[in-house]
Specification:
alpha/beta, Rossmann fold, 6-stranded parallel sheet, 34% helix, binds 2'-monophosphoadenosine-5'-diphosphate, NAD(P)-bd_dom_sf, amino-acid biosynthesis, oxidoreductase
Length: 276
């Protein structure tokens, strides 16, 4: 009997916006791997049944996206360390007949900075703007890289406090108006809020308060050059855009499902940029 082709998916609701099929489709074709990566619209009420049926299905694994990342945690047989710490799953795979859930967002964030700004973790002092799911993954990444200070700044201070509490003191919570005191010591500034996204309000910050050695990164990637990154570049600061995190977070999943560690290349980047 011929061996079945490996099939993977991204599931979410809605799912039309996901760029994961473009990324994994590119790698499948680039490496000549016979397999598929499918876009599946799974509404919240169907997630449990969908994941329960996965072991007997044709799928070797897949990605989980909004709004399922947190719920998937309690529906898998085994959580990896990152998913456990972050409290969200973005990657699924089968191993020994059990459904495993992992989180590659923190890996993607760090791998992108490793590629773009080697030595990025040396300053050891980070200021994160925002306290949502993306910020949670980034706090974990910074903790793994032994940052001495991880400061979370959020419009709604209770969410910043909840996030700091989640990491049991490894991070501190601050109000937006504390930024004038926080920016001068910041080695890495990360925007995880939706401010600066296409069509939305911008992010207003006095970048003159930052040291000249700072790295400014944004996880927003549409537009690629956000107002924050444009202002930072104008000041001659090092900047890292949000697209690289999206590309790098896809690497471990592809390797697990299709058996080959894929590369994040300029060609892949250009392909996704053309689709933004
Ligand atoms: P994600 O999971 O992608 O991180 P999220 O959980 O919706 O998304 O979080 C969005 C972040 O952007 C939050 O930190 C949010 O701040 P609040 O917690 O105060 O809502 C932040 N954000 C969104 N719009 C904002 C705005 N107009 N001004 C300041 N912060 C904003």
């Amino acid at each position: 009997m011929a061996e079945a082709l490996p099939r993977a998916f991204v599931c979410g609701h809605p799912i039309a916006h996901s760029r994961s099929p473009l990324i994994h489709g590119y790698w499948l074709q680039h490496y000549g791997i016979e397999g598929t990566y499918e876009r599946l619209d799974v509404p919240p009420e169907a997630l449990e049944g969908f994941l329960r049926d996965m072991p007997g299905s044709a799928y070797v694994g897949g990605n989980v996206t909004i709004p399922h990342k947190e719920n998937a945690c309690r529906l898998v047989d085994h959580l990896d360390e990152a998913a456990h710490r972050i409290g969200a799953v973005n990657t699924l795979w089968m191993d020994g007949g059990r459904l495993h859930g992992g989180n590659t967002d923190a890996y993607g964030f760090a791998a992108n900075l490793d590629a773009e700004t080697p030595g990025w973790s040396q300053s050891g002092v980070a200021t994160i703007l925002g306290a949502g799911g993306a910020a949670r993954a980034i706090v974990h990444a910074l903790q793994e890289r032994a940052f001495r200070q991880i400061r979370i700044v959020n419009r709604t201070s209770s969410r910043a406090q909840a996030l700091a509490a989640h990491f049991r003191g490894a991070a501190s919570a601050h109000a937006w108006d504390a930024l004038p005191e926080l920016l001068p010591e910041t080695g890495l500034l990360i925007n995880t809020t939706s401010l600066g996204m296409d069509g939305g309000p911008g992010l207003e910050l006095d970048l003159s308060l930052l040291p000249s050695t700072v790295i400014v990164s944004d996880i927003v990637y549409a537009p690629l050059l956000t107002p924050l990154l444009a202002m930072a570049r104008d000041r001659g600061l090092r900047t890292v855009d949000g697209l690289g995190m999206l590309l790098h977070q896809a690497v471990p999943g592809f390797e697990k499902w299709f058996g080959r560690r894929p590369e994040v290349t300029p060609e892949l980047r250009a392909l996704v940029i053309a689709d933004l």
